[in-house]
Each structure stands twice: as C-alpha cells, then as structure tokens.
Amino acid sequence: MSRPLGVLPETRAERAARESRFTLDDFQSEDEPMRTCLELARAAARTDLPLLILGETGTGKTILAHALHNSSGRAKSPFVAFNAAALSDTLIDSQLFGHEKGAFTGADRRLKGKFELADGGTLFVDEIADMSLSAQAKILRAVEYGEFERLGSEALLQADVRLISATHHPITRFLADDQFRRDLFYRVSGITLRLPPLRQRPNDMRALIVSEVERACAEQGKVITAVAGAALERLLAHPWPGNLRELKRVIQTAVALTEGRKIEPEVLLLENLAPDPETGDHHIPGAIPGEDLSLRAAEQRHIQAVLQRVGGNKRRAARALGLSRSTLDRKLAELGRSH
Fold first, then answer.
1. pTM higher than 0.85, yes or no?
2. Which CATH architecture has domain 288-339?
C-alpha cells in the first residue's frame, strides 16, 4: 500500500448499495479454484438454469449470487434474497409464498412472498439445506411449475423466477442422510458453483487485504498508507476459517485501533480457529474439554480482547467494535451477569 486511503466516511448502507451493483466483471482472481468458479459463473450467467452455490460460511455466496443476477439477462428485474436458516415452516411459507390477512395469528394484512416479488427476476435462497423436508417439498413445486398459493388462499399464483440457491452444509452427506430431498437437489443444481475458502486463495490475499483496508478506511473516515511487514505476515499465515467475513471483521477492528497511518501486528485480533476436516465445524486447537465455544462466548472473548487492547477505554472499544456506547454497555452488563 503506497497511497492514502479513505477521504469521506462511507456508510454501511452506501457500501451495501455499491456491492449490490457488482457484476462478475468486478471479480478477479490469481488462484485456480476461484478462477474456475468465476469461469463457470460467467457461463451460467448466459443461461437461465437454476444455480446452486456451495461454500463455507463467509465466502461471499450472497455477493456472488447478486453479481450473477447483475450479469444475466434478468439484470433489470428484481433480485430478491431470502435466508432459510432457523425459520419455522410457517414463517418460511409466509416469507416465500406470502399470506392473506388472517391466515395466522398476527397476519393483519396481505403480504406478497419472495417468489411473487422476484417475478421476472432472480430469487436467491440462502441456506436452502436448512429447510425442513416439508418446506423443501413446497419450494420444489414452486420451482418446478412456477406455481404457488399464499397462506390462507387457494388461488393459484404464478411467477417467472430464476432460482439461485446456496448452502454451507456438506450437501452430499445431507443427501446420503436424507436431510435434503434428491428431487429438489436435481432441480436446483442445474449448474453447481463451488466457492473456495480463503485458505485456497493464497495469491489473492494481498489484494483482498488492501481492498478491505480501503473499505474500512472509507467507512471510518481514516487515512492509512501501509501495513507493517510483520502484520502482513500474520495476515497471510492465518487460516481464515471465517473467510471473507472474518477478514472484514479483523481489518475493520485493526483500522479502528490504528492511531497512525500504518497497521501494526498488535492491532490484529486473530482467533486461532480451525475447521474440522470431516464436519466443517470450527474448533479451537487445544481447547479445554467442555469449554464454551458458542458464538456468544466468542463474542464475549472478542469484546474483552478489544477492551484490553485499548486499555479499558469504552469509547475506543465501542468504535473498534462498530457498536454504540450503549450497546457495548449492555453487552458488558450481560457479560457480568454470566460470570
């Protein structure tokens, strides 16, 4: 890095709007697994086939899906995203197909579902493998025939939708264990894209680090001109189990904690997590049996690490964490009650 970064702060809404305009031409790679994925994605964008994107959590499946839409013949029509994780069948039905007023408790008005909203465009269903088998059967019918009913109605509706699905789960194992319907798999996987994790993209890491520093500087209104050699070595050696999402978090925190114009190694808060080779779950090497490895516990450890790094200054810690001071105080109060 040799030039000042960041002039006016960029809001998160502005960043989201910018990323929503990405096309496949905005993606470049020097690593074979990612180049293979992008070549297949460009070919897929020229078709109307359903797509299935496989990749670990944080690899950028949503951004890739939006770029595919923006590079396709449906680019001028809606791109509608839906995350199926942790939703009940009723909520999935309501979100995907809509509902009539009075269809269930709390349904005080008619609501259009994602299929209806995406008519003529693209529907992106993230974490499709988290759906129950019952919900999978319903989406199969909608995908196969383009027909569905709103909850509380028997009227048959139609929508012309190009489906892009994604999951971080090992899909072959889900199929073998009957956790994912084979008929739905064959219907949604007209073309399957495998988005590689960061550990398979070593030649892209320098460019990705620079890009994230630029974005963090833009969001925070800061100027950073360099990454210290020792800091860069740590970043390049890290396995990045959280992939792009983890990289973004680490760089945002590092930029917030940097007082001068160079990122030093001591502001890099890296968790030594590693994926289980069989399950894909992440664990801490040498972890104590019975240790709390939940996301909440990880968040608490991270808050404590940031507070320690800034000498207990809550204002600086809140800024580094991207939280308001009141939210940080609430989380610290919850942390105190848990001990």
1. no
2. Orthogonal Bundle (1.10)
